[in-house]
Specification:
Layout: H1 5-24, E1 83-88, E2 102-108, E3 114-119, E4 125-131, E5 134-139, E6 145-150, E7 155-158, E8 163-168, E9 174-180, E10 188-189, H2 190-195, H3 203-209, H4 214-221
Antiparallel strand pairs: 1-2, 2-9, 3-8, 3-10, 4-7, 4-9, 5-6, 5-8
Helix pairs in contact: 3-4
Length: 227
Amino acid sequence: MAGKFPTVLVACFAVLLSLAAPLLAGDPDMLQDLCVADFKSLEGPLRVNGFPCKPEANVTADDFFFPGLGKPADVYSGNPMGSAVTAATVEKLPGLNTLGVSMARVDYAPWGGVNPPHSHPRATEILFVAEGLLEVGFVTAANRLFTRTVPRGGVFVFPRGLVHFERSVGEKPAVAISAFNGQLPGTQTVADALFGASPAVATDVLARAFQTDGGVVDNIKSKFQHK
Protein backbone atom coordinates (compact mmCIF):
# COMPACT_ATOMS: atom_id res chain seq x y z
CA MET A 1 0.00 0.00 0.00
CA ALA A 2 2.83 2.37 0.87
CA GLY A 3 4.28 1.98 -2.61
CA LYS A 4 1.04 3.25 -4.16
CA PHE A 5 1.06 6.48 -2.13
CA PRO A 6 3.07 8.67 -4.54
CA THR A 7 1.26 7.33 -7.60
CA VAL A 8 -2.18 8.06 -6.17
CA LEU A 9 -1.21 11.56 -5.10
CA VAL A 10 0.42 12.37 -8.43
CA ALA A 11 -2.73 11.20 -10.22
CA CYS A 12 -4.93 13.39 -7.99
CA PHE A 13 -2.54 16.28 -8.49
CA ALA A 14 -2.74 15.93 -12.28
CA VAL A 15 -6.56 15.81 -12.19
CA LEU A 16 -6.78 18.94 -10.04
CA LEU A 17 -4.35 20.71 -12.37
CA SER A 18 -6.43 19.84 -15.42
CA LEU A 19 -9.62 21.09 -13.76
CA ALA A 20 -7.97 24.33 -12.66
CA ALA A 21 -6.20 25.00 -15.96
CA PRO A 22 -8.93 27.22 -17.47
CA LEU A 23 -8.72 29.50 -14.43
CA LEU A 24 -4.97 29.41 -13.94
CA ALA A 25 -3.61 29.38 -17.48
CA GLY A 26 -1.03 32.09 -17.97
CA ASP A 27 -0.85 31.69 -21.75
CA PRO A 28 -3.44 33.20 -24.14
CA ASP A 29 -6.74 31.31 -24.27
CA MET A 30 -7.13 28.77 -27.05
CA LEU A 31 -9.49 29.54 -29.91
CA GLN A 32 -10.20 25.96 -31.03
CA ASP A 33 -10.42 22.46 -29.55
CA LEU A 34 -6.80 21.67 -30.31
CA CYS A 35 -3.75 23.17 -31.95
CA VAL A 36 -1.03 20.53 -31.96
CA ALA A 37 2.37 22.14 -32.49
CA ASP A 38 3.65 21.71 -36.03
CA PHE A 39 7.43 21.86 -35.63
CA LYS A 40 7.95 21.39 -39.36
CA SER A 41 6.20 24.65 -40.22
CA LEU A 42 8.18 27.07 -38.05
CA GLU A 43 9.19 29.06 -41.11
CA GLY A 44 5.65 29.16 -42.40
CA PRO A 45 2.69 30.80 -40.61
CA LEU A 46 3.32 33.84 -38.45
CA ARG A 47 4.22 32.96 -34.86
CA VAL A 48 2.88 35.31 -32.19
CA ASN A 49 2.60 32.98 -29.21
CA GLY A 50 3.29 29.27 -29.30
CA PHE A 51 3.66 27.23 -32.50
CA PRO A 52 1.65 26.96 -35.72
CA CYS A 53 -1.08 24.32 -35.71
CA LYS A 54 -0.68 20.96 -37.39
CA PRO A 55 -3.57 20.17 -39.77
CA GLU A 56 -6.11 18.29 -37.68
CA ALA A 57 -6.16 15.42 -40.18
CA ASN A 58 -2.49 14.78 -39.34
CA VAL A 59 -2.97 14.77 -35.55
CA THR A 60 -2.58 11.45 -33.71
CA ALA A 61 -2.98 10.32 -30.10
CA ASP A 62 0.81 10.28 -29.77
CA ASP A 63 0.80 14.08 -30.08
CA PHE A 64 -0.81 14.13 -26.63
CA PHE A 65 1.46 11.52 -25.00
CA PHE A 66 4.89 11.74 -23.33
CA PRO A 67 6.37 8.81 -21.37
CA GLY A 68 9.37 10.63 -19.95
CA LEU A 69 8.24 11.41 -16.39
CA GLY A 70 8.19 7.79 -15.26
CA LYS A 71 11.92 7.15 -15.50
CA PRO A 72 14.46 8.46 -12.93
CA ALA A 73 17.19 10.67 -14.38
CA ASP A 74 20.89 10.20 -13.65
CA VAL A 75 21.88 12.70 -10.95
CA TYR A 76 25.37 11.32 -10.32
CA SER A 77 27.43 10.99 -13.53
CA GLY A 78 29.26 14.27 -14.15
CA ASN A 79 26.48 16.21 -12.46
CA PRO A 80 27.83 18.88 -10.08
CA MET A 81 24.33 19.92 -8.97
CA GLY A 82 23.15 16.42 -8.10
CA SER A 83 19.79 17.07 -9.77
CA ALA A 84 18.18 16.60 -13.17
CA VAL A 85 15.01 18.04 -14.70
CA THR A 86 12.85 16.13 -17.20
CA ALA A 87 10.43 18.59 -18.77
CA ALA A 88 7.04 17.79 -20.30
CA THR A 89 6.58 21.07 -22.16
CA VAL A 90 5.17 21.79 -25.60
CA GLU A 91 8.60 20.99 -27.08
CA LYS A 92 8.22 17.37 -25.92
CA LEU A 93 4.43 17.17 -25.92
CA PRO A 94 3.09 19.06 -28.97
CA GLY A 95 -0.52 18.54 -27.92
CA LEU A 96 0.06 21.11 -25.15
CA ASN A 97 0.27 23.91 -27.69
CA THR A 98 -2.17 26.74 -26.71
CA LEU A 99 -3.41 24.81 -23.63
CA GLY A 100 -1.42 26.87 -21.13
CA VAL A 101 -0.05 24.05 -18.94
CA SER A 102 3.06 21.87 -18.66
CA MET A 103 4.84 19.64 -16.16
CA ALA A 104 8.31 18.49 -15.15
CA ARG A 105 9.97 15.84 -13.05
CA VAL A 106 13.00 16.73 -10.92
CA ASP A 107 15.30 14.06 -9.46
CA TYR A 108 17.70 14.88 -6.61
CA ALA A 109 20.64 13.02 -5.10
CA PRO A 110 20.33 12.50 -1.32
CA TRP A 111 21.86 14.96 1.14
CA GLY A 112 22.46 18.04 -0.97
CA GLY A 113 21.24 17.45 -4.51
CA VAL A 114 20.18 20.95 -5.54
CA ASN A 115 18.12 22.54 -8.28
CA PRO A 116 20.05 25.83 -8.18
CA PRO A 117 18.49 29.31 -7.94
CA HIS A 118 16.48 29.99 -11.08
CA SER A 119 13.25 31.57 -12.28
CA HIS A 120 10.45 30.84 -14.74
CA PRO A 121 9.62 34.13 -16.50
CA ARG A 122 6.40 32.86 -18.06
CA ALA A 123 4.73 30.70 -15.38
CA THR A 124 3.94 30.06 -11.73
CA GLU A 125 5.15 26.66 -10.49
CA ILE A 126 3.45 24.30 -8.06
CA LEU A 127 5.77 21.56 -6.82
CA PHE A 128 4.66 18.21 -5.38
CA VAL A 129 7.22 16.10 -3.46
CA ALA A 130 6.66 12.48 -4.48
CA GLU A 131 9.70 11.02 -2.70
CA GLY A 132 12.25 12.23 -0.15
CA LEU A 133 12.55 15.50 1.74
CA LEU A 134 13.25 18.90 0.16
CA GLU A 135 14.27 22.29 1.46
CA VAL A 136 12.72 24.88 -0.86
CA GLY A 137 12.52 28.64 -1.02
CA PHE A 138 11.93 31.74 -3.12
CA VAL A 139 13.02 35.38 -2.84
CA THR A 140 10.61 38.28 -3.38
CA ALA A 141 11.36 41.56 -5.13
CA ALA A 142 11.86 43.02 -1.63
CA ASN A 143 14.65 40.42 -1.09
CA ARG A 144 12.65 38.49 1.50
CA LEU A 145 13.30 34.75 1.58
CA PHE A 146 10.40 32.35 2.12
CA THR A 147 11.77 28.87 2.86
CA ARG A 148 10.77 25.63 4.55
CA THR A 149 11.19 21.87 4.31
CA VAL A 150 8.60 19.98 2.31
CA PRO A 151 8.10 16.26 3.11
CA ARG A 152 6.83 13.51 0.87
CA GLY A 153 3.27 14.33 -0.14
CA GLY A 154 3.71 18.08 0.43
CA VAL A 155 3.10 20.86 -2.07
CA PHE A 156 4.83 24.25 -2.40
CA VAL A 157 4.18 27.16 -4.77
CA PHE A 158 6.79 29.38 -6.47
CA PRO A 159 5.21 32.62 -7.79
CA ARG A 160 5.86 33.49 -11.41
CA GLY A 161 9.20 35.09 -12.20
CA LEU A 162 10.68 34.91 -8.67
CA VAL A 163 14.07 33.30 -8.04
CA HIS A 164 13.68 29.98 -6.23
CA PHE A 165 15.55 26.76 -5.44
CA GLU A 166 15.15 23.22 -4.08
CA ARG A 167 17.63 21.08 -2.16
CA SER A 168 17.42 17.48 -1.02
CA VAL A 169 17.92 17.20 2.76
CA GLY A 170 17.05 13.54 3.26
CA GLU A 171 19.04 10.34 3.31
CA LYS A 172 17.24 8.96 0.26
CA PRO A 173 16.97 10.32 -3.31
CA ALA A 174 14.13 12.79 -3.77
CA VAL A 175 11.64 13.18 -6.61
CA ALA A 176 9.37 16.14 -7.28
CA ILE A 177 6.68 16.72 -9.88
CA SER A 178 6.10 20.33 -10.93
CA ALA A 179 3.17 21.83 -12.80
CA PHE A 180 3.21 25.18 -14.59
CA ASN A 181 0.47 27.47 -15.91
CA GLY A 182 2.32 27.86 -19.20
CA GLN A 183 3.10 25.51 -22.08
CA LEU A 184 6.73 26.71 -22.15
CA PRO A 185 7.54 28.35 -18.78
CA GLY A 186 11.17 29.11 -19.58
CA THR A 187 13.97 28.52 -17.07
CA GLN A 188 16.68 31.06 -16.34
CA THR A 189 19.34 29.90 -13.89
CA VAL A 190 20.86 32.83 -12.00
CA ALA A 191 24.47 31.67 -12.21
CA ASP A 192 24.24 30.72 -15.90
CA ALA A 193 22.59 34.01 -16.79
CA LEU A 194 25.29 36.09 -15.11
CA PHE A 195 28.42 34.03 -15.70
CA GLY A 196 27.56 31.99 -18.78
CA ALA A 197 25.88 34.56 -21.02
CA SER A 198 27.00 35.02 -24.61
CA PRO A 199 28.29 37.59 -25.29
CA ALA A 200 29.62 37.61 -21.74
CA VAL A 201 28.51 40.14 -19.16
CA ALA A 202 31.47 42.49 -18.64
CA THR A 203 33.73 41.38 -15.81
CA ASP A 204 33.86 44.84 -14.24
CA VAL A 205 30.04 44.96 -14.13
CA LEU A 206 29.90 41.70 -12.19
CA ALA A 207 32.86 42.65 -10.01
CA ARG A 208 31.07 45.81 -8.90
CA ALA A 209 27.75 44.04 -8.45
CA PHE A 210 29.26 41.33 -6.24
CA GLN A 211 31.76 43.73 -4.61
CA THR A 212 34.74 41.58 -5.47
CA ASP A 213 37.67 41.75 -7.88
CA GLY A 214 37.81 40.84 -11.55
CA GLY A 215 40.01 37.82 -10.96
CA VAL A 216 37.33 36.17 -8.84
CA VAL A 217 34.70 36.88 -11.50
CA ASP A 218 36.86 35.49 -14.30
CA ASN A 219 37.51 32.36 -12.26
CA ILE A 220 33.78 31.81 -11.82
CA LYS A 221 33.13 32.49 -15.53
CA SER A 222 35.64 29.79 -16.45
CA LYS A 223 33.41 27.18 -14.81
CA PHE A 224 30.46 27.94 -17.12
CA GLN A 225 29.96 26.89 -20.71
CA HIS A 226 29.16 30.02 -22.71
CA LYS A 227 26.26 29.45 -25.10
